[in-house]
Amino acid sequence: MQTRRPRLAPQLKPLDRPLALSDRVYHTLRQLLREGRMGAGDRLREVSLAAQLGVSRTPIREALARLASEGLVAVEGRGYVSRGVSSDDVENIYELRFLLEPTAIRQAAATARDPKSHAPLAAAVRECASADRAGDADAFMAGNARFRSVWLAMVRNRQLVRAIERYASHVQHLRRMTLSDPSVRAVALAGMTRISAALAAGDGEGAARAMRDQLTAARQALREAGGAARKRVRRAAPKRTRRTAART
Question: What pTM was estimated for this model as a whole?
Answer without folding.
Answer: 0.68
